[in-house]
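User: I want to check something. If I give you two sequences, will you return the structure for each one separately, not as a complex?

Assistant: Yes, each is folded on its own. Here is the first sequence with its structure:
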Amino acid sequence: MDGLQFYSREDILKLVNLREGESKLGECVQLSQNLDELSSSTARFVLLGIPEDIGVRANYGIGGTATAWPAALKAILNVQSNRFLQGSELLVLGHIAVHEPTHTDTAALQEKVAAIDDLVFPIIQQIVAAGKIPIVIGGGHNNAYPIIKGAALAKNRSIHVINIDAHADLRPANGRHSGNGFTYALRAGFLAKYGLFGLHQNYNNEAILQEVADNPVISAIFFEEMLVNSNFKIQFWKELSDNFEQPGLEIDLDSIEGLLSSAATPSGLELNLVRELILTSTQKYTYLHLCEGAVEMADGRSAPQTAKAIAYLITDFIRNQK
């Protein structure tokens, strides 16, 4: 059945490459077998996987995002535990198991995405209510909606979100998929303020561009603005992010040049720039969501380094937010 799958210590250690004289994060992370235990944990960050690509396929994309979680988890667990990051700051909660629907037409996939929403938001709500910061590895960008919903319900107010993304994901609310999570969050009143960083002029339709221009709660920095003002990328980021209060941080990996995803780009943000944005940020974030990345696509493309890229972004985030 679909639902949250917890991990035992044995499950975790099977993924760790043990070496005498060294300690890895996987040997030090905290675990839980019950959501009710979260409030008593000393870990500030809670890692959750949503290994699915149903939302991407419901948006006419190529499957593969389900492969990011297991590979990224292993990469994170094999980071060295040292003076910069010990591992006890992180609780590995587990992953949400999502089974394929019986039918795979677009309507059936969208119906399944709505069911995934209902699995995800109560878990995020409980993590945030326990005073923890969720770190979520997807999965498609459809999961932004239930993450925002869960965080907003826990805080009993709508929240702010910054999305590093080539796409605004503001397609019409005519069935759930990876391209309209923020549309649903805005319409449901869970998203009070939405910032976009790195939006591509080529891959957002005119209706979405008009929505970005007309909606006073949406602000955007286009990637092309940064290309012609390359010395001011960090300044652009600071000017955008300073206008948000305890936002959720969304990073769509298709915004990063060369990373494998359904909408992989040859022209995008450099991984080291995104790392710099995280490491130099003065924000206190409500959550981190990394989505749309893959180590293997349904069309046969593969890129094992995606897992290590995710590990870098997550460890940077934890160091910055400690």
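And separately, the second sequence with its own structure:
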Amino acid sequence: MSKGMEIKATGYKIDIWKEQLNNKAILPILQNQLDDAEKKKQPRFHDFSDTDMLIWYLNEQKNVDKKKDRSERTIYEYERELTLFVEQLLQYGTVINIDLDYIIEGSLFKSLESRHLRRYQEWLATESPHVLKKGPYSPATIERKTTIIKSFFAFLYKVGYIKEPIQIGFRIASVRKDERPNRDLGSKEVIYLLTTFRDMEHPIMFTIVHVLSTTGIRNEEFCSLQVKDLQVDTILGGYYLNVLGKGNKRRHIPLKEKVVNSIKMFRFARGLPSIEKSDGADPLFATNTGKAYSPSYLSQYVSKEINKLYQEQKREQVIITPHYFRHAFAIISRLNKVDVYDIMRSLGHERLETTEIYLEKVFAKENHAIHSWKPELFGEYI
């Protein structure tokens, strides 16, 4: 019997496991089990299964205010990656060389060792179905997947569910500067897109580009905006967007008058009621079906429309997603001499380092030695 089949033969059923993960009603039961273990002076997670551990890891309420815990988007991303990890271990155990003779206490997580995580990471990057069909993952994707799985096993070790810090088996997967995708978009290209979509009488794309590039909001933030999030600024005048960002943190993003006019134009073009006559819970931006955009659909739509435009203009094909305009906001702000800390806060970044990644090329050009050359040392040629 192959090693991959041995794992399945233990009764570790992925379909049942996936179904159980969606049962959020179990959270109060898990909390009671923890309380009971504490009362009996037992290890906290004494009676937990692998499924229980993952549900608790994803959904544990750490703050009194639930809104300050992991967002639904983050939970979904972590759940997807960790479920795929388990599924691939079970399905491709032989190829990955998951050399387990048996499952300890019915737990796959307790049975794994450092070498298994290292072998999985190597397989994922070189021989996984995605690689064989579509080519290698980007370094950023490998880094993200590694970080999620590594953080989960670090949690399992920290709480005593596993006995060894097997997450050390992962190799470093940080992304070098030259491996990051180039998402730089300056004012010249943004103005070109706005001008062209305006001249084409394409109010939908004009507004999407206008809003994204002048606010720097994330794809997900744009899609989740409701009519009530467009609010009158009683302090500075005009309007602002009340945006719910990562970590359920709110940002108030001022809007230029022309951007507000673009939003109204978008709604008129879609046949939606005016802001004043709309229900506050209605999506601020809707598809032609009247429903809110999903992040994946918005990304596909923006890429498709810009590619179509470039094709018609016989320009080089570039896949531009909504995230590019977030970079454009940072770059244009810096070129307007905005302080990097103000850019960081405007984008809703937690760390300055993240903002600096957006601005690497701008900083490099700003700090280039040529700017310090004096005309008298190089004559008429500078």
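Because they were folded independently, the notes below concern the second chain alone. The chain has a mean pLDDT of 86. The beta strands are 230-232, 239-244, 250-255.
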